[in-house]
Amino acid sequence: MSTTTPTAPVVRPPAPKTSFLARFGWPLGFFAAGVLVFVFNQWILPETSTEFQNGFGSWLPMTAVNEALIWAIFALGLNIVVGYSGLLDLGYVAFWGIGGYVAGWLMAPFANQVHPSWANLSFSVWGNPLPGQERGIHINFWLVLIIAALVCAVAGVIIGAPTLRLKSDYLALVTLGFGEILPEVFRNGERVGPNGEWNITNGTKGIIGMDQIPTGPFQYIPGVPETIGTFDLNLKFIVFGLMLALAMFVSLRIREGRLGRAWLAIREDELAASMMGVPLMRIKLSAYAVGAAFGGIGGVLYATHIGGVLADRFNFSVSIILLAMVVLGGMGNVWGVTVGALLLAWINSTGLGQLGNVWNDVTGAEVNFASHNFLVFGAILVLFMLFRREGLIPEARTRQVLQEPERGEIESLGADMEGTAEDTAAEGGKK
Predict the structure, then answer these.
(1) 114 in any annotated domain
(2) Predicted TM-score (pTM) of this structure
């Protein structure tokens, strides 16, 4: 007769209690801000005086707001690579360009210029070409978003595979090289092949004539058109806002999962993560793929926003601005990165110029502040690194690490405590 010893029940610690505001404060805040912006620009602003409309438009035009949303999507993609995984990427603009050119190839009449034999090409999958531009390839905008995300994810793996064996400064230099190579390909891709018969990117002339955004079943709502054109800025705001919300949701959910925890482990200590069984190469490649997919989506949105793809837009300074958005907003914190991206995008587009005009009116100076944007960004970075290294809205883990005293301070504190204890013991012995 065998006896079995009863096993003690597993006692799990209770989950930490968080208030409703702590869990949903940021999402509700962004949602309320989005609704307010749309309602104000759609119904309230048109009813105001022309003078007020001009003044408000000079400070916060809808074009700048839409562009800021796209910058925020790019910043969230870079945050996957830099903030979550700790991999310094100085060539993220390459994925922006790839996504934009995927949109140009699949949503514009340009395809019939690629090769002489394609001159009469006309292919459409639920496309929405502009009148008179039906030739070429026209694939539905929503499908192109998925295609661009997949293409950029594959490109991220291809670019990351030979480079992720490097670390720190070497990795940054290699990604910088890729970020410089691809824009040159875009600029010089007009005559490719043995006889120059292939036109891949249309060179510096770029690709124009992007398809419109279909509204699908929402067109049956009164006031919603079948397609969103170039100048339907308020409706574009809804589309870009939804894509930003999707990027934020994916970032938050991935971070809480197994993949996100593996990224954080690599960021904190790569050697310890590998000893715990984390497959470094595969996890790093997944970070590059996810971050690049965000860049592909943003590239399609940006091409739709400006109505084309221009090779001169994809220069090294874009990668630096995106990195500044991540660092100043708070690396690893989705809300901080989003706020930092929106703020810096507004400063770079209209805010710096308008603040400069106010300064010139007050002081009587004639300084063109908009032409000194990198000087201003550099000064902001220096001040943040001196007084708030963790960023505007830092991640809790990052804030704790950056606010810890350095080793020299800890050792000096321990020496002072040891000296105080010895003095106390000596005084006790004398008594």
Answers:
(1) yes
(2) 0.90
